[in-house]
Structures are given as C-alpha cells and as structure tokens.
Amino acid sequence: MKRVVIDCDVGVDDAMALILAYGSQELEIKAITGVNGNVPLNQVFENIQKILSLIRPFYPPLIAKGADKPLTGETLYAHSVHGIDGLGGADIPINETERFWETSPLKASELLPTMARQFPKELMLIATGPLTNLALGIQRDFEGMKNFKEIIIMGGAIRTRGNTTPYAEFNIYSDPLAARIVLESGIPITLVPLDVTHQVFLTSDLMEQKIKPLQNLLSNFIIQATGYESLSRKFRNRETIFLHDPLAVGVAIDPTLVRTENLSLEVELQRGEYYGRIKERAADAKINVCLEVDRKRFLELFISSLRKRT
Ligand code: RIB
Ligand code: CA
Fold first, then answer.
1. Which atom of ligand 1 is nearest to the CA of 130?
2. Rounded to an integer, what distance in angstroms lies between the CA atom of residue 30 and that of residue 6?
3. Which pLDDT band holds residue 96 (cuts at 50, 70, 90)?
4. In this structure, what CATH number is given to the domain that contains residue 63?
5. The model scores a pTM over 0.85
6. Cα 179 from Cα 281, distance rounded (Å)
7. Which residues have a catalytic role annotated?
8. Which structural domain, as residue segments, surrounds residue 199?
9. Does any ligand 1 atom lie closer than 6 A to the CB of residue 11?
10. Cα(67) to centroid(ligand 1), Å
11. 7 CB within 6 A, ligand 1
12. 272: left (phi over 0), alpha (psi -120 to 50) or beta
C-alpha cells in the first residue's frame, strides 16, 4: 500500500479523485486537507466531509482546513464549473452519526509537514487544488516537507493552451507565488498538467454504457455532480467532463499510465498576459512532467473504482 495525503479544493473532479483514491487497492489515504480554490475554503471543507460520508472509508482519514486565500492576489473561484456548492448541487447529507473522518486540530500547513515527518520518505502528497497549503508548509517547516517521498500535482499547461488564460491553468493561476515556491523546493515532483488531463474525459457514451448501468451511490453521485442529463446526453452545457484531478490520483496508483519528461520549469509572476503561466527554461531539469497518457487504461481504472460499491 502506498500511503498518501491529498490536498484538494473539492470541486467535482476533486470529489471524483477521492472516489478513485478510495476505490483503489494500492492507496492508503492518511489525511485530506482543504484549500481555497474552486469554491471558498469552508465550502471545500464541508464538501470533503460530504464525499467521505458518501465513500464511508473503513479507515477514517485525518482532515484539516488550510488557506482561505492565496499568498498573493485575489481568489478566482470556479462556481461556473463546479456549481455554487462545489459539487454541482449533488444532494449528499453529511453523516453526523458515524465518523468517517477525524478532524485535526492543526491547520493544513502544520499537518502536512507533521505527517511527512511521521512517515519519512514514505508518504506521497497528491495536490489537486491551488498550492497555497503546500507553500505555507514549506515556509513553516521546510525540513518537515522534504520528508515527502514525492508530490504529485495536478496543474499547469506546458505545451498546450491554458484553461484560465490562453497560457495558465486554474490551480497555478490561482496562486502562482505558491506554485513557484513548491516547484522550486527541490522536493521530488511529478506534474500532471492539462497536456494530459485534457486527454481524459467523460463522454455521454461512457455515462450511458459504463456509469449509469452501475446504479450505485457513487455512479449516481457522478451523474448528479456532473449535471449529466440523459435526455440531452449532455453535461449541463458541456459535451465532456475532464478528469483532471482523478488523473493525478491515477498517476499515484500506476505511474506507467503516463510518459514523463524531466523539465526545468518557471512560474510567471509578472502581472499581465502571461501571469500564472508555467514555462520551460534552459536550466537543470528537476520536475517530472507528464506529457502522454494511456487514456483507455486510465478510464478503465477510473470506472473500475466505481464498481467497488453495492
Ligand atoms: O484546471 C483544473 C483544476 O482546477 C482542477 O483541479 C479543478 O478541480 C480546479 O481546481
Ligand atoms: Ca481541484
């Protein structure tokens, strides 16, 4: 089992990433931390509890709140993609009776280095939101954070168009200074950018043939959260739903799903057209960047994680 911590801004694809993580036999989720991103922090934290109430993990993870704003700049939010509540309006009651999590007294920026110190060079950190918590953890306890074996980050657009500006991806654009601190930390990083996450998406055929027929709590959640309307065979106003964050979890489960190149990267902090862009630079390469993905095998892995529930 690979021991992991997940830092996320639960949104719909973060929720699907948590479902994949718990549906795999390979990962043991030790903690889940929330960060301001798709929706405000308190909503993210509520959504983490909703998804854990849905998944009902046998081993309750520690959960902790993190940053409620980026290190610099203002928050963008992505309500247009994830809905006002961040889960597309999916109706999931928080289970107040049984305990499917344990709330840590620590903030995320304290819990992350503390967990890394507890499992030196063994714990993987999967980051699927803006990198504010990770940067604060590095600023607070760099030696502690260096105990992470690897950090897998969903973020950036390296040799492809951005999704927030033509050059920048949402997680990086939301807190570019945090991204620069993390990418330049020297901690082993695997970046899962739009270059690969734009190749993995749900389609109406997948929904009709693979997901709807499962008719279980997880498949029903995905139908609700993505706003999939079988009559229109559309996702609200979209033809497809990208599986950005689930792919970051997929890379933790099975690194052979992707082909990577070791690149030297720099985050653009200059306000203006290129703000939040990650660009390649001619220097010592130190970031493993995913540039190709085995789409078919990843989608099979994702769908199989939904079958684990009665
Ligand atoms: O650009 C996609 C990323 O931004 C995903 O992590 C999504 O959840 C949002 O956080
Ligand atoms: Ca996210």
1. 10
2. 8
3. confident
4. 3.90.245.10
5. yes
6. 16
7. 244
8. 2-307
9. yes
10. 16
11. no
12. left
